[in-house]
Amino acid sequence: VVRMLPTAALLLLAVSAVAKENATCDGPCGLRFRPSSQGDGRVDTTIGAWPWMVSLQVFTSHNHRRYHACGGTLLNSHWLLTAAHCFVSKKKVYDWRLIFGASEIVYGNDKPAKPPQQERYVEKIVIHEKYVPSLEHNDIALMKITPPVPCGQFIGTGCLPQFRAGPPRIPQVCWVAGWGFLKEKAPADPLQS
């Protein structure tokens, strides 16, 4: 089920989802369980280094394989935040599988997620009502996770900015993380930053 909401309502839903449905992920957000730098400007990508990162994978029922399509940020045990452009061609909840706790993903995997990874389904997709695909304006969406995913040693929540926080007033370090190939035609996508 895909629903369209304005930005303010979408963010309010995300914030209230974090506040109200944080039953199994009630600890502080943004904690890295295994933070360490590799010394070459890239960040450690071992399991638990970026516990809020979620692999959104397109599921193909004819061969039961999952293909990584987008990344997301875990907000709590029930919701994750991602980009609306992920759903331009795949809008049905049954088209998706969510992989939590992964530091590396195999494109076209047909095997169950191995612990400490956890695989979940999607109950609902909520896309910003004013999303414009051609311009990528309002490129934001939420996904409701089913069953809820528990936080633990390798899975944790990311933080949302404070409402009306605006840009930082002092310089801050910012990391961007996501999956990608290290080499052309590589068999796996490691988490990178």
From TrEMBL:
Keywords: Disulfide bond, Hydrolase, Protease, Serine protease, Signal. One of its GO terms (molecular function) is serine-type endopeptidase activity. Residues 38-193 form the Peptidase S1 domain. The keyword Signal applies. One of its GO terms (biological process) is proteolysis. It comes from the Eukaryota. SMART domains: Tryp_SPc. Residues 1-19 form the signal peptide. This is Peptidase S1 domain-containing protein.
